[in-house]
Each structure stands twice: as C-alpha cells, then as structure tokens.
Amino acid sequence: MYANLVLTEEGLLTMKQRVTVFVWNYFTYDARVMRECSALAENGNDVTLIALHNTSDKNCAVNETVNGFDVVRVKKGFPVINKGYRLFARLIKKPIAAALFVLLFAVFVAAMFVHCLPVAIVALCLAALFVVSVFLKAPKHLANLGGILRMIKVGRKTNADIYHANDLNTMFQAYACAKLFRLRKNRKKIVYDSHEVQTSRTGYGKGIYTIEKFFIKKADKIFCENNTRAKYMADLYKMELPTPVYNYPEYFDLNDIEAVDLKAQLDIPADCPILLYQGGIQYGRGLDVLVQAIPHIKRGVVVFIGDGRFKPELLKLIKQYGVEDRVRLIGMVPLRQLASYTVNAYLGFQILNNVCFNHYSAASNKLFEYIMAGVPVVAADFPEFHNVVKKYDVGVLVDSHDYKSIAAAVNFLLDDEEYRDNLSRNCYAAAKELNWNNHKDEFIGEYAKIEAVV
C-alpha cells in the first residue's frame, strides 16, 4: 500500500492509483474528459482512457499517449454481422441489384421447397428475422453491444483500482469491470461522472430513471457538471449532493494565442463583425431562432463552428430566410486549435432552448470558452448562465425562444462598441478565476478521498 505513495510538486503525499476511464465517443473533442484525465495523470496516477474507434478517420489512433495518459480505442459491432448489414444497406440503395437479389433468393427457396423443405423454412425464417431486425434498429443496438463488450474486455485487463464512467452510457462498463463477477474483497471503486441530466434530456426515455438509480447506488463517488444539477440529482435520488465539476477551460494568455485569420479564410470584410456560435449543431440549441433573428440584426456575419444532426435543417433554414450571404459554416475544429478561432469573434452565442432540464441547467463549455477568449456572450437567461453573466458582467441575457430578443441584444452590442469592449475586459478578468487551473486541485482532492479508502 505505501509503495504507491508519491510526492507531488507541491510537496504533498498522494497515493498513486490505476484509473481506467470510459467515454462513449471518439475522444477527439471532449474537453472535460481531457482535462480530468490529464489532471489525474499529472497527479501521479496511472490513467487509461477507453474510447470508441472511428475506423473512417485515419487520424483516430487505436492506441496513443496523450498528456501522460494512455488512450485505447475499441471498435463497435461484430465483423460478420456488420458486413451483412452493410451489404443490405448497399442493396436497398440500388433497386435493380436488390430486385435481382430477391429474385435469386426466391428461386433458391422455391428449389429448396421441392428438394429440401427444412432448408427452405430455415432460409425464410432467417430472412424474415434479418428484415425485422433492421426495422427494430438491430444494427445500431448490436454495434453498441460490440463496443460495450470490447470496452469491458480492455477495462478488466487494466485491473484498475478505480473505474471512472463518463455519463450513464459507460456506467455498465465500469460496473462490469469493478464489481461484476468479483468477490467482495476484490471489488474496485466506481466513479460516476454525469455530464448531462440523464432523466430530463432530449432523446432519452422515462426508463432512464430506473437505470440511473440502480447504478448510482453502485457508485463510490459521483461528479456532475454544476451546482444546479447537483441539487437536482440529490433531490431526485434522495442522496447527498454530488460534487460539481464545472466545465472551465485551461487558462491561456491571449497574447500567446496565434489567431486564425478567420475573416480572410471565410471571405468576410475586415470591418464586418463575426457573431460566433461554436458547439454541436443539434436540436434544441436555439440555432433555428438564431437564423430567424439574422434578418433583424443590423450587421455582421454569423459563423457556426461545429457539426451535428441539425445541420441539414439549419442549411434549409438559412436558405428559407435568405441569409446565405450572412452565414458561414465551418466543421469541427480540433480542441487545441479552437481558441485561435474563438478570439476572432465580436460576440458569442449560448442560446439553448428550454426543451428539457438538461438544457435549462447547463453551464456548458462554450460559455467559459467565450469568456476565456475575451468574447462577450449573448446567453439564454437560465440559472447557471444568469449567475455567471451577472456576477462577472460578461454579456447580455436574452429570451432564447424569441428571435426579437436575440436580435435586440446583438444590435445593442453592435451599436455600443464601448460597452461591448468593457464586457470584453470583464471577460479577461473573469477568465483568471473561471479556469481549470484554479479548480483542478479541488477535483484531485475529491479523488484523494476515494483513494484513501482503497
């Protein structure tokens, strides 16, 4: 036990642990997971992050070392089944080939009815099962199952002291590695790091409450994204307050940032302000309302940095409102380069819609990323945004469901450049407090409490 004690740069003794972290994404843009894993590694822990592997991205390595911790990426699905579904997907896109395949299959079944009835019956049953499985979204479910099983396989091999699940979709993996099929004396610790409000979130059903409640009882430590969500979880599950870990970015000096010339890159006139949205292009982010507001904004070009399911609909709306000349879209930008883009903005949007408590209670990355880059924010008047904007005077609060409210706030900041610049200076001051460097020791301290009982 004492052999694991290490001395930190601050002269404090801490116990080195093996920590295995799970995340259900490709780990290419996840700032929160990057910060936490880096902090744990810096503190002397042996950290392994298990993520998903994007086989279509050549830059997505199966194994790599990042900031002192190991990253292992696993594939989803099962090889033979995957090929079958991919072949089916190609066939339905080619009517002639699909018709020929069906014809040949019908001839085969007819022949088997004459010569070998059991084979014909089995073939028909398998075909029916395959078609029904497609309509029941079996390809997606089987792919996810493959990813989960591979994560568990890799996770158990690490034989970690602590298994850290990021969100509910990796909690089973952590539970299976830490406690399932283990004698009580050999069970490991589980950390549940909830980035979202799982029980009030777009696309999630009512059954999530039962699942999360089960796994919360198995967790040895619970983190969540902010104070509002901590209280929500404590009230919902009648438990102690989870520990909030805010999405503060790493601190950087703007003088050290080599800004991308975004205006030149996007053919925007030098005197035209950039009105920036960065983040997921998803439903419920207020992006439809923002496009509706553009014709009422006096000047400026709205730049979207990111990608997501809502993008096709966003493009339709841009065309519908005739604002193609006032909008630019960029794909996802690597996390380490994002600040070089953000610093170009006159203001930034954080205008989530109140479609669920997950949105209403958010204190998301982009709010603090704007502040860190000295960019005043136009933000939805939700509790966490309200607290930051009012306390540090770094932006303007709006009704994110009302395009007139958004347009009025933008026009106000466009008309009063002196006021906008004052907000920007306030951002610089706030950034010195609202950064990960100031708060990561709190996160490490909470981890130390877990280590103390291992």
Give structural notes.
The protein has three domains: 2-74 and 161-247 and 439-451, 3-Layer(aba) Sandwich (Rossmann fold), CATH 3.40.50; 79-139, no CATH class; 254-434, Rossmann fold. The chain contains 18 helices and 16 strands. It has helices at residues 31-42, 79-92, 95-115, 117-135, 138-158, 171-178, 208-216, 227-237, 262-265, 287-293, 311-320, 338-342, 357-360, 365-372, 383-392, 403-415, 417-431, 436-451, and strands at 5-7, 13-15, 18-22, 46-52, 63-66, 69-74, 162-166, 189-194, 221-224, 243-244, 274-278, 301-305, 327-330, 347-350, 377-380, 395-398. The strands form three sheets. Strands 5-6-4-3-7-8-9-10 form an eight-stranded mixed β-sheet, with helices on both faces. Strands 13-12-11-14-15-16 form a six-stranded parallel β-sheet, with helices on both faces. Strands 1-2 form a two-stranded antiparallel ribbon. Helix 10 links the parallel strand 11 and strand 12 (301-305). The longest helix is centred in the first third of the chain and has 21 residues, at 95-115. The model has no long low-confidence stretch (mean pLDDT 89).
Question: Topology of this structure?
Answer:
Elements: E1 5-7, E2 13-15, E3 18-22, H1 31-42, E4 46-52, E5 63-66, E6 69-74, H2 79-92, H3 95-115, H4 117-135, H5 138-158, E7 162-166, H6 171-178, E8 189-194, H7 208-216, E9 221-224, H8 227-237, E10 243-244, H9 262-265, E11 274-278, H10 287-293, E12 301-305, H11 311-320, E13 327-330, H12 338-342, E14 347-350, H13 357-360, H14 365-372, E15 377-380, H15 383-392, E16 395-398, H16 403-415, H17 417-431, H18 436-451
Parallel strand pairs: 3-4, 3-7, 4-6, 7-8, 8-9, 9-10, 11-12, 11-14, 12-13, 14-15, 15-16
Antiparallel strand pairs: 1-2, 5-6
